[in-house]
């Protein structure tokens, strides 16, 4: 039995990707791992009084979002484990894939034109994962 | 007889030179003792009546330069101090003084400074006052008009560039302001050394422009909120709000808005949003509503709540320090405005989001609820208790600060130190968590705004607004409110307020009836509320959008405008009506 790593941010736009990852895990009989990467780069451009551990607060939220994904998986009959990591999203996804020994990485397809990540950029990132880790990555 | 005549002739011949020498000596002695010391006292100001330091003052008697006695030596010119005042001692003869008094001789003061037109002021005979053998002249203010030279254009371009870099987030706010300050000082000390037309502001003046009262107050409040933030109280408050709402999304959002508004009046609203937003998203997901429908009202309320006090929002802190307005004055004048605006906000939010709230899930997932309850606990009740006690004492001191004449920054110092001593956190870690980039941002910003003040841009804008408003305080107040609101929607309201303050100060001095500080309250109202119109308008907005994005809920610029514009319009308009009733109609 292999492992599928599904990188997710939560939110309605991610539900479709989560559901497809769950479906894939069911089909392949794989274990599912949901990953949330804590990234606080949005604070890097404003002079706001950042005097608290923002990363930990966001991590709490990430765990909650992953718990929601886990619940969706459980309802579909799939057991999913959860990981949160802090740092650069691209680097952390690659590192998690290697450390968890997964056989497939699932990335979410951009929901619409307003999405932060464009499809082309995601395709390039999927290729980068495959090239650097040897683990195939799909965009669902 | 002939011999006696001869002796007499010799004696006369000998006496004549003696008498001549004696007369000459006597004349010389008269001239020395009849010298008069004339002390000239005056102030050099700009056309807005603000003091101009470092202006050179020379004295001309007719067309001749007079030497000025300064600190025991004779100099060609004296310089004005920080308050624009100068004292020039000149030594004149009684004849020269008589000439000045009769108007036969002109005594002229010539004031010059790089970036200003040279201005002359003739001393009138009625300016002179005698005290024994010493004369004094207290001169009317000498106003220097700005010269729109290279320094003016460079400073203006730098200022606009800094605002653009901040508004469009091209550079970090701090870096943009730091760059602006460096350009202004750099040009002054390179090209400006050789050509005074390029002199924007000296380093000494730059330091004078930094308002350390603001810097220290913000720093100490950071320490305070950092200690409180570690106790988990904000997450716990969100859970309490959820329980109190009993599953109603509408009730929940009203409670969250009220809680956030009250907290923001006393604590830094960026930190509040950083701590409240993640847990609010969790609560929203449990209820099955789009988290943006809770977060956006929450952050709007946090900006409005901050209007109430001197320490609530950085623009208020800057205004209070500049205009010497105390904690109680802010509470009395801006408190009602914050309450009225919060009520208005609740009404507008209901209109915009009511459908989203009615779609809320009635039966939340027990597993997620259990997780929320587990995470939203107060982690350090002892520290929280101590923090609240210190905070209470600080508030009491803030209330008494005007009577005790304690600067707000000192109250902040006392509170922060008391808390650190009592709670004993890891001081090194605590101090490393003080956001020095924000403090540097403020310092650099003060220098950039000081630069454009120094070259006359701010005065030029002030004159323009004064020209529009004329002597009508209501028009001036409306202009300040709406221009501030629009400008704060485009650029972060902190730099805007810093730049607009000298304009509000000028109008307060020149518009009849403005002594009740209504223009400062107008600026606070416009700048703080205007920050709600766009998500770049204030730092808490940027933080809230960032946290939402991290949860997978992207709010675009246009999405925000759909809520921000109507909210800003309503929350500026309704308090403006209140302002009119209070300061123009009932005048209480």
Tally of alpha and pi helices of chain B: 24
**Strand element count of chain A:** 5
Question: Can you list the strand order of the major beta sheet of chain A?
Answer: 3-2-1-4-5
Based on the structure, what is the oligomeric state of the protein chains? Answer: heterodimer
Strand-residue proportion of chain A: 15-25%
Report the structural category of chain B: alpha+beta
Largest interface, and how many residues on either side?
A: A-B, 37 and 55 residues
Number of strands of chain B: 12
Radius of gyration of chain A: 15 Å
Strand and helix layout:
The complex is a heterodimer of chains A (140) and B (588).
Chain A lengths: L2 E5 L4 H17 L2 E8 L15 H22 L4 E7 L2 H12 L3 E4 L11 H15 L3 E3 L1
Parallel strand pairs in A: 1-2, 1-4, 2-3, 4-5
Helix pairs in contact in A: 3-4
Chain B lengths: L1 H32 L1 E12 L9 E6 L2 E2 L2 E3 L2 E3 L2 E2 L5 E9 H9 L4 E6 L6 E4 L5 E4 L2 E5 L3 E3 L5 H18 L5 H17 L1 H4 L8 H7 L2 H18 L3 H13 L3 H18 L2 H19 L4 H14 L8 H10 L3 H32 L7 H10 L5 H24 L3 H16 L3 H6 L3 H20 L1 H13 L3 H18 L2 H18 L7 H13 L8 H12 L6 H29 L3
Helix pairs in contact in B: 3-4, 3-18, 4-18, 6-18, 7-12, 7-16, 7-18, 8-9, 8-10, 9-10, 9-11, 9-13, 10-11, 10-23, 11-13, 11-23, 12-21, 12-22, 13-24, 15-16, 18-21, 19-20, 19-21, 20-21, 20-22, 20-24, 21-22, 22-24
Quick overview:
In chain A, 47% of the residues lie in helices and 19% in strands. Chain A contains 4 helices and 5 strands, in the order βαβαβαβαβ. The model of chain A has no long low-confidence stretch (mean pLDDT 85).
